[in-house]
Structure to design on (437 residues):
């Protein structure tokens, strides 16, 4: 029987604290080219959709960071088979990020009396008018 | 393993019983005992799971719970890793490979025996190592951040703030805002151009360093696969992942590969790259059809 040499780089050993992050594990157990599915078919498309849903579920970046989750970014099965889905998801996520940023800026703006222009600072010029309108609407309402 | 209509059988992978060591006791999914389902010279590592929780209807919903997903992934990997550590050669299967029972598994092995044998031949005596490289936010990135922050006072700043420097710019905004202001639009634009050119030069040198790094690692591997780097938005770090490689390395050469890694990691630090090594893993990235592997 062969035995694996014990070294400082073995999984789970000290010296490589982030070695077995969930992202590392998931990108391996989900990312496989082999297609030997069981006779109980868990549709792979469902797993791909799952990654999209998960991303939306894990809207809290802190929570995701804490769990080491960003594996959907790196699943080649996704990039290979459903590029469109991934791209769409990417856009959605970016929108979500923008929205979250904007919301926090709005909150900050309302507490310190900042102007709408200041709250829209990070955003491309084109997106400012709706943002200002919404800010005004919130204040008027 | 008794056949039961109340259970399904989760398959972790297939191993060669001719070279199968005594497997250490390891719990599978949901803590169920793992057993070998043999057919000829091949055997599946398998354990039973309750059908009601794992069938086509129940499982997809349960996978949406991150805790469940994580537990299943770690259990799946744990069984395969135990086999690897025991010295077995295993073809790891995709997580959530489920069969109606041992008979169905034997049927699968019989049907796919030739392909499984070929895959086993490729990964025999091998383990997978992962190397990730991240680009730390260096002095160049800091300068870009200051520029973004300064530019934010004018319309040009907003127009130019998108893109790679954006996240860094936001991070550096608090400290740099007001410290540096563009005296004129022309001067500001010229500075932006210089900084962009500087970033592009940095980018090129990073790309070259990463390519060299991957080549060195691959030179000591039987095969190598590049995966898409993790995006940084959810890693929550300004550090950008620039390499996500997997390397198929003989198990008895693991120490040598790790030593090479340490050597490369020291050198890469000078390029602003932080390297991370994980492994040994079961050969997850190397059990597809050969043509699917981007062997470098």
């Amino acid at each position: 029987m062969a035995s694996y040499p014990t070294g400082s780089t073995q999984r789970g050993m000290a010296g490589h604290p982030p070695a077995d992050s969930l992202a590392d594990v998931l990108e391996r157990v989900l990312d496989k080219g082999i297609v030997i599915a069981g006779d109980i078919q868990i549709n792979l498309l469902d797993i791909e959709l799952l990654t999209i849903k998960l991303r939306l579920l894990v809207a809290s970046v802190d929570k995701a960071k804490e769990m080491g989750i960003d594996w959907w970014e790196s699943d080649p099965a996704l990039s290979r088979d459903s590029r469109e889905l991934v791209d769409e998801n990417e856009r959605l996520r970016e929108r979500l990020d923008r929205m979250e940023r904007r919301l926090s800026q709005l909150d900050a703006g309302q507490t310190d009396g900042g102007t709408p222009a200041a709250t829209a600072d990070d955003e491309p010029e084109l997106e400012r008018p709706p943002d200002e309108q919404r800010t005004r609407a919130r204040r008027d309402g | 393993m008794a056949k039961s209509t109340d259970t399904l059988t989760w398959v972790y992978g297939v191993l060669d019983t001719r070279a199968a060591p005594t497997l250490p006791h390891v719990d599978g999914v949901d803590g169920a005992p793992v057993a070998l389902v043999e057919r000829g010279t091949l055997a599946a590592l398998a354990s039973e799971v309750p059908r009601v929780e794992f069938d086509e209807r129940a499982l997809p919903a349960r996978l949406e719970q991150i805790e469940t997903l994580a537990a299943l992934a770690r259990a799946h990997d744990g069984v395969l890793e135990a086999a690897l550590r025991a010295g077995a050669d295993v073809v790891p299967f995709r997580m959530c490979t489920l069969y109606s029972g041992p008979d169905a598994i034997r049927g699968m092995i019989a049907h796919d025996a030739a392909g499984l044998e070929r895959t086993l031949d490729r990964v025999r005596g091998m383990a997978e190592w992962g190397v990730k490289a991240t680009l730390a936010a260096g002095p160049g990135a800091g300068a870009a951040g200051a520029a973004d922050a300064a530019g934010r006072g004018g319309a040009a700043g907003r127009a130019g703030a998108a893109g790679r420097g954006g996240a860094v710019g936001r991070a550096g905004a608090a400290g740099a805002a007001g410290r540096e202001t563009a005296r004129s639009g022309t001067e500001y634009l010229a500075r932006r151009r210089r900084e962009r050119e500087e970033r592009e030069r940095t980018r090129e040198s990073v790309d070259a360093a990463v390519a060299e790094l991957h080549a060195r690692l691959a030179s000591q591997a039987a095969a190598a696969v590049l995966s898409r780097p993790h995006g940084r938005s959810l890693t929550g770090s300004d550090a950008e992942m620039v390499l996500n490689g997997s390397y198929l390395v003989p198990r008895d050469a693991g120490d040598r590969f790790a030593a090479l890694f340490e050597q490369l990691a020291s050198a890469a630090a000078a390029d602003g790259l932080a390297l991370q090594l994980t492994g040994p893993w079961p050969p997850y990235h190397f059990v597809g059809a050969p043509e699917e592997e981007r062997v470098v």
